[in-house]
Amino acid sequence: MSDQIRHLSDELARDPSSLVFLQLGETLRTSGQLDVALRVSLRGLERHAYSAEAHDLLARICADRGELQRALDEWDMVLRLDPGHYGARKGMGFVLYKQGRFSESEQYLREAAASGEGDASISHALASVERMLRPEVQQPQPESAAPSRNDARRLFADILADGDQTALLIDSSGLVLAGAYISAEGHEVAEEIGAALSGVREEAERAMRHLPLGAWTSISFEAEAATVAMAPVANGALVMVAADPAMPQGFVRRVLESCAARSRSWLTGAA
Amino acid sequence: MTVTVAEAWVEEPLRRFVDDARVVFALLVHPSGQVMGQHGFTRAVDVMSACALAAAINASAGALGRELEARPFQELYHAGLERQVFLAEAVTVRGACVLITAFGRETSLGLVRLYFQEFRQALAAAAPQAEKAGPVLAADFERELDRSMAVLFGRARPRDLTPV
Amino acid sequence: MVGCVVADAHDGIVVEAVVRQGVNSNTVAALAASLYGGAVQSARAAGMGEVGFLRLEAERGHVFAIGWGDLVLVVIADVSVNVGQLRVDMLKSRESLA
Predict the structure, then answer these.
(1) Which residues in chain B have their CB less than 8 angstroms from residue C26's CB?
(2) For residues A181-201, b (16+ Cβ closer than 10 Å) or e, as one string?
(3) pTM value surpassing 0.80
(4) CATH T-level topology, domain B3-152
(5) pLDDT tens across B70-88, in order?
(6) Cβ contact (<8 Å) for C51 and A211?
(7) Is residue A179 located within the same domain as residue A95?
(8) Given pLDDT bands bounded at 50, 70 and 90, which one contains residue A136?
């Protein structure tokens, strides 16, 4: 237990009716102790049922626990109690995006942005929603704007909306040519991921030799931690996109197509 | 991968089978026990034992199949803890031959069976016309067996049986 | 739909099959189980956990697969198939068979 958590717990024990549970719950949430954070938050709400901040805390904990509908309900309560609450609008926008309700998500995100408290994550999220709602407005990158070999790690950076997606370009022997893959612990694991996933290509090619379906154009599979999609590009290379499992399948496919087009252009330029 | 053959015409089909099916061992044997080609063995004595066993299994399974179903079993399969064994007969104009193969978790019975079908067709297509069969004497058989072993382990060249 | 096969996920052997004439269910079972197994192994090696629905898109059709326990349900479909509907149906089938 960290000193801060111990200190806040002691303070709450001395005065159970104080609002210090908000700080304690948030500290527990950010340190990943979600079950304890949930208990603290629920106990606080028993005494402060009309506190917008208490409901906001519970909503954030629920979102972290993957209980998106419950988070949505809590933020809805926050907005009833405090219609101008920035965190609730941002949270609602986030959850609705995850649920594929892009128009509603955009509305909340725009309201959050208009409140003047907007941070970089809001503009990032808005850009993602825009891409879903109005894909035709996206301008293709001019050839000259394609990154050079030196920018290989950032080849797909402008295509990928946020931390929920990542992309790699893998050569025919399973080595990473471009892109990056950062693990949840913050480590670069592109080589390991690239090598592990390129084995699927061999299976696909083998299957296509025997089934009368022509050449394969893409493979996608839904794993617990990610939705993975891959497509052949050129010279035996493969582009792979991994996205949050909550991301809509159609959107992942669209991102894959964009990354494949970028890869082809880059490989042609790099040849 | 190393495929060695006693008869040149079996090399390409056997190499293809081993490559596609990703098996660990493969042995192509005449029903008499004479080796025609192999992959995965490093010692002649192991090949000789495997050939004798494969021929015996094929003969006894054939007899059992005829007893039970009025025809020989087409395939035999045995699942071990780590390795699995598949045995089946392929017929060519030069007569029947038996493929016995062992494989691990890199592949599956389904894939081995799939590629065995292709192997059987490729072997039939590659087989040269049969030579006029002579009497199989014990002395000939032993001489042939010795020669096959010498070829498989690099002490002689494979027989190139182009049609006459 | 061109064919639907339930295969043993490890052996790639047909458990049940309904396929259009001319489609070899043994071939479909062996190859699709191997493809699905490859995805499962790759996802595990990459720390992504277990694999659910898999889709391979090709020039003239699709291969879909979904596993449960030791079995894998495989569907071969032509290009005009409603992918979203088929995905939902396969997920439901898995639930009812599990």
Answers:
(1) 110, 113-114
(2) beeeeeeebbebbbbbbbebb
(3) no
(4) Beta-Lactamase (3.30.450)
(5) 788 888 999 988 899 999 9
(6) no
(7) no
(8) low
